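Section 3.1: Structural characterization of target chains.
Under the original work plan, the team committed to producing a structural model for every single-chain target entering the pipeline before any wet-lab resources were allocated. The record below documents one such target. The sequence was received from the expression subgroup and is listed exactly as submitted; it comprises 307 residues.
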Amino acid sequence: MSLARISIPRLFLLKSVPTSSSTTRLRSSWTPPRSQLLSPPTSTTTDPSLALRTAFLSSLSSPRRRLCSSTAMGDSAVDAGMDEVQRRLMFEDECILVDENDRVVGHDTKYNCHLMEKIEAENLLHRAFSVFLFNSKYELLLQQRSATKVTFPLVWTNTCCSHPLYRESELIDQNALGVRNAAQRKLLDELGIPAEDVPVDQFTPLGRILYKAPSDGKWGEHELDYLLFIVRDVNVHPNPDEVADIKYVNREELKELLRKADAGEGGLKLSPWFRLVVDNFLFKWWDHVEKGTIQEAADMKTIHKLT
């Protein structure tokens, strides 16, 4: 596996780190459309082999990072304003910790994985995904993150950005199936898109990026991010706990959004991971989306380390 380096001087710098060889369902007042939660993994989507099951069970006995007593309930002074739903997710969701070669090395709470202090001190790197959903007119669905989000509130970003969790169905490495299962789950959680509208076999993993980005003085991201593309006409019912607004954009409308963000017009901001994808990959991949040749753009062997 190769590590491709891309220089983005005006964006966030990724410090060098040593390399090695090589949901809890959201409980809120919001109810998903059709009052339907995702069913347990089916044989067509998440039926791993006995070897995969054995590997998962074995991993449960591996060293695990735990919250120390001082952070078990968060910093009451700093986190007093944290929304109850976001607080629950921060402490109940367990992200997948990986090394720079995307090998699983453990798991930790979403809270710890997004503390810049821990990211810097322990080099915590977690697995993530970013979904880019296009409709049949090849318009890209964007979302504005809710004001209650702990990291990057009210920024505009791609369709859905989140994390596979440390659970059997989302740890499956083969063909990025675990990540695709997680993407289907979060599209329902965040945007109310039913699972049947976004079958896991319709996601195309195009690549992986590794980046670090601070959100504010306390929070930030350090992610190995899977980029998933899908072309589907879907029913969208945004969850206000997660999403403030949505819009479909064509190429020219996205370029205007970029111009406004660069100029600081109206306080408009874009997420750092979305901007990195836009600046390096999106428009050439958009060509493949429109031509129906998206598989030709896929490169899952390279991890693009953005510095």
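The mean pLDDT is 80.
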